[in-house]
Amino acid sequence: MHLKRLEINGFKSFANKTVLDFLPPQNGRFSITAIVGPNGSGKSNVTDAIRWVMGETSMKNIRGKKSEDVIFSGSESKGQLGMAEVLMVLDNKDKKIDLEFEEITVGRRLYRSGESEYIINGNKVRLLDVHLLFAQAQFAENSYSIVGQGMIDRMLLVSAQERKDLLDEASGIKEFQIKQHQARLKLNRTNDNLGQAERLVVEIEPHLKMLHRQVKKLEKRQEVEIKLRESQEVYYGSIYSYHQKEIDEFAKELELQEKKYKENFATLEKIQTELAASASASSRQEVFEGLQNRYSQKVKEKNDLERRLVVLEGQMHTEYGRQGKGNISWIENKIKDLNAGLENLNLKLKQIESDLNKQLEESSFQAKKLESLQAEKSQRQLKISRLQSQMYDVQSKKNYFEFSGLTAVKEIVQNRTKFGQVFGLVAELGEVDKEYRLALEVAAGSHMTSLVVKDEEVATKAINYLRENRLGIATFLPLSKIEGRRVNPGIENLLKEEEGVLGLATNLIKHSSKFDNIFSLVLGNTLVVKDLHVAKRIGLGRARMVTLDGDLVERNSVMKGGFRQSQLKGLGFSGKAGFSEEERAEEYVAEINLEKQELEEFEKEIESLKENRLRLRVGEENLREKDATLQKERLDLETEMAGLKQELDLIKNPQDFDKHLSVLQETKLKFEKELEKKQGELDALSKEIEDFNQHEEEKKKRIFDLQNQMQTVQLEVNNIVGKRSDIKVSLARLETKQEDLVAEVENDMSESIISVLERKPAVVDVKDLDEIADRIQKLKYQLSLIGGIDEEVVEEYKQTKERYDFLDGQIKDLEKATDDLEVLIAELDKIMKKKRNAAFKKIKKEFDKFFKILFDGGSAKLEEMYDYEQDMTQDKDNMTQENEINEQTEDGDIEDKPKKRRKKVLTGIDVIACPPGKKIKHLNSLSGGERTLTSIALICAILSNNPSPFVVLDEVEAALDEANSERFARIMSELSTESQFIIITHNRVTMHHADALYGVVMKGDGVSQLMSVKLDK
């Protein structure tokens, strides 16, 4: 390896780009290049350029104060430059530097802004990379390879430590020193990281142990929780199955009773309908009176005919008697008396007829009233039956309410006077048609059981009452504070445009206007639609919708629906608004009692009417008998009077007798025929009246039978309603237990009973449930002993453990790296010690040799200087023995102390030089020339031992005379077989031995220029 070329641009006085080409090796030796020039021309700047490009960082060594001093600062004719650059091209064909390139270019640039960069073959590198590169080539910027101007004496005058460092480089251990230095830096960083990691481990370890204990407890807790959950699943699953089985049985029984109830109630309604139809039909009394009137008219017509026939017969008997004329005066008086008697009879008959008409009118009125009362009685009986059914339903609802989980609501309702104005539950304040009831109950949701109160004061008192008595919780809606919701315009459009939209929920419930805001809040903008198809057609999310089947579609498109059992709870909207279930039941009882009282009054009035009608009939019969007697008397009088009048007429007109008798005979025959016809009509009317009476009797019998049947069926219905109510109460109790069980499961296991049942837990006998319950309590007690542990501790433990393991691994890696670095440092120490010892022996020998050549005699030597320092470490060979000693001291309770030993350390190199004929104890006693020759001898000894690829000497022989210069030149020529020499000199002898000369001159512009001479040409 040798230096091929040096390019300088902008460095100190070399303002222009200057290239120094060096001759390649010839004839087995490297070239010697001499750089000459007058003082101040800048030739020493070449040495500075080489030192600078090789990585010199001390501005003192390159004759400057600050870094920008190396950049051309300008002259009178040339301005300052912004950058200095030096490139060194090395021939690496012998691969002395372990790189693939045969030519290596090392460069350095510095900008006036302060930025700098190092380059190897065009790539930016670190300063360390440059140092390692030159260390591999056995030279460096501070080594013996570059001896600057005025540095030749300093090689002897420096301290022993600095001289040791110089010889270390000469020994070829610079590369190892750099590696060892890097290893020590890395070891220090590793120790720092190790200490930091150990501190973190010390800090984490107690927390990790605590977390480990927590995790163990959590694992134990999880094990207990698994057992507890398994036991709870079996326990709750079994109870739920038993309850569900009983509920199913009650449901079947209830379904059977409901079927019987519907059948019997249908029969009852049929009977009541028939009774009502009978009572509300057209009056039969009018028909009977019509028949009676017709019969009376026919009797009257018959009596008239009979009377006329009797008169006619009297006339004929008178005619047949031929009694003669008689006493006319007596006859006239007799007629006059008969007329008076007849008038009296007519007056009596008229009075009887008037009395009879009044009796008939009264009888008709009584009959109509009786029919009305009987119809009203049937309606009352039907109403009582319905009220009783409703009462049983309300009582079953009331019982459900008592057995449901709404204890708090019940307490507030029962003690409402304590708090102020409590209107009742939302469910009690509205009336809803049966068609919409399920839909509106689903739409109202949990607000069905909310209590509506006057204001927040009432709500506060009620809440305090519940809290003080530990009665549970209830929801209160203060009427004075609740504000209604505004109906969205889009809802109104849907109501107008969409088919299947039945209406806005708030418009389908009847309630007092003061509760408008309550129902607006509860039902909001909910639309009632026919079914889900309508809801889907409208579009999910456009509005809150509920179907008649109870399927709910929320505004956020959440859908809830499925099969819903019929309401048994009594908490739904009903036909009675504003009353609690207890009040409704009491009202139904009061109403039933009132209806029964009125029914009793009706029955008493009916009996009274029947007695009056019987009395009227008796009076009617008496009047008719009197009428018939008087009619007969009147007929007799009229007959007698007619005979007397005829007799009087005959007495007065005898010539008309025969003619008159013939007319009487014809008239008689005519009357007899009419009388026979009237008798037939009377018989027909009599038969019709008899049939009518018989039909009426059968009808009355049917009514009595229907009333008896209605009472029987009503008793059966009441019995069924009672049974149904008992079943509903039992079913409500079971459903309440089931709901409580569901709530207990959700509270105890934090999941639904459905999820539990999906895992199909085993169903055990009822007798085993107590044992399982005891086991659950024991497991809960174990959990209470373990205590609550946040499950996030597992994740925290995992993270902490990972961090601890990571740090532990890092510590192990760092400890291993520390051991490896210590081994590396120790190995490097051994290598350097070995190489140093070998080199020192050779340098010591060569130093004496070159000293004698230069001084033509005398002696010189190098001596190593050592010091001792205390070493606390123990040799590996003694570790086993010391461990045995430690074990013995542990058994014998003897304190173990590390053994101290002294370590011999090389601290410097001393130079002893004795020119011929002199005894020199101190180097300071040497003259200037003697010191120069001694330094040159030392440099030559070093170069002889460890040749540098190239050596730069800056006027090192300036103090030598011509004879010594000749000796120096011969030594340099001898050493050029191993090293390339670049010498800055004024010495002619040196120039004579050079292979090439470079002249450096400086004109008036302050810029150094170069001229070259090849001496072989």
Short description:
The chain has 1017 residues and is of the alpha/beta class.
Q: What is the topological layout?
A:
Blueprint: E1 2-9, E2 18-21, E3 32-36, H1 44-53, E4 83-91, E5 103-111, E6 116-120, E7 123-125, H2 127-136, E8 146-147, H3 154-157, H4 160-170, H5 174-280, H6 284-321, H7 328-403, H8 407-414, E9 422-425, E10 431-432, H9 434-444, E11 451-453, H10 456-468, E12 476-478, H11 489-497, E13 501-504, E14 509-510, H12 516-523, E15 527-529, H13 532-538, E16 545-547, E17 552-553, E18 559-560, H14 581-652, H15 657-749, H16 753-758, H17 769-786, H18 792-855, E19 859-871, H19 879-891, E20 901-914, H20 928-945, E21 950-954, H21 962-975, E22 980-984, H22 988-993, E23 996-1002, E24 1008-1014
Parallel strand pairs: 3-22, 3-23, 8-21, 11-12, 15-16, 21-22
Antiparallel strand pairs: 1-2, 1-4, 4-5, 5-6, 6-7, 9-11, 10-14, 13-15, 16-17, 17-18, 19-20, 23-24
Verbal overview:
It is a single chain. With 1017 residues, the chain is of the alpha/beta class. Among the domains are: 228 residues, P-loop containing nucleotide triphosphate hydrolases (Rossmann fold, 3-Layer(aba) Sandwich); 266 residues, no CATH class; 164 residues, 2-Layer Sandwich (Alpha-Beta Plaits). Helices cover 61% and strands 12% of the residues. The strands form 6 sheets. It has a 6-stranded antiparallel sheet with strand order 2-1-4-5-6-7. The longest helix has 107 residues. The radius of gyration is 72 Å and the shape is rod-shaped. The two termini are 25 Å apart.
